[in-house]
Structure formats: structure tokens, C-alpha cells
Amino acid sequence: MAPDKVQRPAVTLDPAPHFTDRDAPREIRYIIIHTIEGSARSAIGWFKNPASHVSAHYVIAYDGSITQMVDDQDVAWHAGTREHNDHGIGIEHEGYASQDGWTRKQLVASAALGRWLCATYGIQGDRAHILGHEEIAPGRRSDPGPHFPWDRYLAMIRTGRDPRAEPAPPVAGGAAAPAASRDPVEEALARAQGLEERGDDFRAVEGYRRLLNDHDDHPLAARARERLEAILGDPLRRSRVEAEEVEAECRGWASLAESYIAHRRRASAEDFLRRIRDIYPETPHARKAAARLVGLDELEWETDE
Predict the structure, then answer these.
(1) What are phi and psi of 301, to 5 degrees?
(2) Distances (CA, A) of 129 to 5, 118, 126, 244
(3) Which of 8, 141, 182, 189 could form a disulfide with 133 if both were Cys (CB 3.0 to 4.6 A apart)?
(4) pTM, full prediction
């Protein structure tokens, strides 16, 4: 890949204060794939928080938007190992390692960024140089998790095309592959509409957003966009959705913290408890997290990060 032939995707700059400044250009050898274990919004806020002492070079949301938080030539604090911090680019992705929530827009944006990074810095586009966080921090981290589509992702970096977007190959005898009995986009829209009709705006918004992030060029995308705008355009409904988003994120982080406590991994537990306390300080979850942090001194721990 010649650098002058690979276009850099659009990014929004939102600098984080946590990085090691390098006076001279560094040798960049790796791309490290992370999941945020939450929303892109919360990750950006956490990386900018003076108390977090963590960062990544890029954050990619479900909708494919890319935020750059640390300059490529500076060392972000993301990997947990000297080698991969000093010589790696960290890319955080909205979502959870345990969930199959990767969207098409997110993968396309991430692969476009990875392709540009490989071309620009001479990174080898293979599994020895494009690594998951779990591979360099075994036992401490599990991201990007079992649902990350490594083969598809590496193919996109190598070719600049999504193999999922290619026409289905013909079946034996030259006939086209049989069509699905029902359009999956139609099914996804029906599920989201059913949730909305039952008053579950939070899950309906998730469904409409997922449909748009995966199938924004489908004829039914306009209907999903219309319903999403109707929910979020109503101040009361929007406030309820946002409150449930915070509730879900806090519950998820509290669960992860308790899992790390059970495995006697203090630094990892503290990370998620401090996220709750510092990102959502006005919530009951923050008060519980603060109390749990105080109680950590009474427990026995193994060596962690």
C-alpha cells in the first residue's frame, strides 16, 4: 500500500491530557484493537478526565465517527505493556467485548483508519502486528472479544473493500444463491417498532440506530430514521432514553468491577469503579462506586497492571 494512494478517513480532534510526548518520530509497529466497554461518549470523557491516567489515539463510535485524542507520534497510555505503548497505535471501539455489537459503519471506519496507518507507518497488516488488547494483556483484558471479525477486518485493511458487500457467489449449476425468506432489515425494523409500541424507547432507539449503522442505504432506513428522530425529538422521551443509557453503562461497569474483584485484579476493578464515580458523579451508582473503592483496601489482591 503506497501512502499517497491511501486516503486518511475524516477524524475529529479532541485531545486527551494523558500521553508521553516524543521529541523525535517514533517507530510505529503495531495497531492495538480495544473495546471501550461502554459508549464512545463516555470513553472520550474518561480519557479527558485528569484523574483517569489512560488514553488511546483514536475512539470509533458505532456510527463510524472517529475521534483522535492523542497524536500518532506521541505515546498513548492504552496497552499496559511498554513495547506496545511505545510502538503501537491504540484504537478504542464503542461497545463491549462480550457482545456481538460491531456495526458495519464502525468496522468500515476502523479498517479505513487501519489501512491508512499501515500505509503511512509501514505497519504489517497481519495478525502479528494488528493485535487485540487481550493478546498483550492476557488474563487482565478480554477485548476486543470473541465476536470481533478478524478475517473480515484484515481483508478490509488489505484491499480497502468489505467482503460482506461483495455479491453472493453462485451455487452449483450456476444459479444464484437463494434469497432469504424475509428481508432481515424488514425484520429489524419490525422489532424496533414493536419495542417502541410497547413503550421501550431505550431498546427501540438501540434497534433503529443499529439498523442505520448497518444498512443506511436500504430503502427502509428512511423509516428507521424517521422513528428515531420522533423519539429523540421529544424532550421527555429523549431524557428517559438518556437516563436508561447511563443506567445501563453504570450497571455494566459495576458488573465488570465485581468480576475483577472476584479475580483479585485491583487495578482493573478500580478503573471501572472510578469511571462510574467520575463520569456520572450525580448518580446513586457513583456513591456506591465511591464506597466500594474505599472498601478495596480491606481485600487481598494479586499483582495487577
Answers:
(1) -130, 150
(2) 21, 10, 6, 38
(3) 141
(4) 0.90
pLDDT of 61-93, one tens digit each? 999 999 999 999 999 999 989 999 999 999 999
Decide yes or no: CATH 3.40.50.10860 for domain 3-162: no
**Cα gap 249→237, rounded to integer Å:** 19
Half-sphere exposure of residue 178, counting CA atoms within 13 Å on the CB side? 3
Q: Give dist(CA 60, CA 109) in Å, integer.
A: 8
Least Cα distance to 106 among 142, 60, 147, 75 occurs for 60
Torsion of CA 242, 243, 247, 253, to 10 degrees: 40
Neighbours of 237 (CB within 10 A): 18
Q: Distance (Å, rounded) from C-alpha 86 to C-alpha 279?
A: 28
* Residue in the structure block whose three cell numbers are 499517497: 4
The domain spans of the chain are 3-162, 182-194+202-233, 240-298
